[in-house]
Write the structure tokens for this entry.
Amino acid sequence: MTIWRRLGFALLFAFLLTVLLLLFHRTQSINLEEQERITIGVRELREFDAEWNVNILKSRTGLNLDYDPVTRPLRHMRDLLKQLEQAAKQAKTGSPRQAVGKLKTALNEKEAMVERFKSQHAILRNSLLYFPNATESFKGLLSDTAATLPPAKAQLLYALDIHINSLLSDTLRFNLNPDPQVGERIIALVTQLSQQKENYPAAVAEALEQLTLHAQAIVRQRVVEDSLLNRISSAPTARLLNDLADAFNREFDIVTRQKQTDRIYLFSYSGFLLLLLAVLAWRLVKSYQMVAQMNRRLLSANELLEQRVAERTAELEAQSARLAELATHDGLTGLINCGQLMTLLGRALLRAERRSSIVVVMFIDLDGFKAVNDTFGHATGDLVLKEVARRVPAHLRQEDSLARLGGDEFVILLEEAGTREGAIRVAQEALRQIESVTEVAGHKVHISASIGISSAQGRIGASYSADALLDEAGVAVVHGSAFGLGPYIRIAYALGDDSLRQACEAIQRFC
């Protein structure tokens, strides 16, 4: 192809492209995306306004615990209104701008009323939260005070108790259904009680004054809040949103009619270009086939790469899980190790503080294990440790734990020990299971154990560290061995735990 032919094709292409761009530019005023964006914006603004009303009513009824749902739609509504305001400025007619201005004014007024509602409702909600509990406390105060007064004065307090019951029921009823007659009855009763408070003891009179103030606040704030809700619900935002949507629709209709001819020209010219492209398409088929073949090869290579990456990822995850297991568990017995035990014990002490429960730690030292190692070798000793680790947990609760500290030392952690007898039974059962290991790998063995018990209870126990509690159990084992008790259970009572003190004395007498 000569340079002149190439130049001719380039000029033809430039001419065709220039005509296409000119027609396209003339039809850009019909911006369907802009129209759709405005329509969606108006619809979303309408939905946010409806959601706003629903959240206000939920706050009124107490379904919303805070005012975040009430204020959350405002930021989105402001953004949408700003977008619609920008779109209205570009309109050829002034009706969208007027509709946006009216809507903006109405939304600002509604937002101001909602802010007033939030402040009023916060006062009302505080009084509603305080009033029932304060009433119960006041009735208890009346009962306690009446028990210390002569019958004649106590009768006044009994009569006051009846009035308080009436005040509570009327106030809660008025909150649910603000009946003016009920409100007048509450105000009259509050006035009567305020006039009579000089006849009551000082503590009763002071508590009565606080109670009546909250009752008056509930009546007053409920009336004000319902008036605000009526004004908010009657705000013309929904109607103005419909007017705004109609104004934009009229604007779009005008622009659409003005550009219909340009669109027809553009479609006709596009059809002409499509015919030209159809003539040239067959020359590109082979090129497309080559590209498709190359894409298939790349896809196959990519799938193979993804498969290898997935396999390697699975291997790394398995290794990570194994490392995590080794970090928290004993490699020989599979029990939790010392570090994990201290973590669980620390958490148990915190839970004991909240629940005022007892945490029990049992330090187990195997007796006769050294003789097994010396006689039959360490491999047999390891089998003995595994057997102990298998038998003892079978008789523990699911929430209890057995850990291996190292060598022949184990620890049982009991949470929320109910009775001292229960803790002793667990220790005795652990002894029985350990002593039941009599044959391992064909060798006759004889092992027993020494168990030291320590405990911590409630808030005081939380100040007792996990290390101190574990050391206390270990000290019990050492002291028991010093007396030559052999297989035994010794309890170290700690932090004023009388129940475990009695258990200790009982076990020592038994031994």
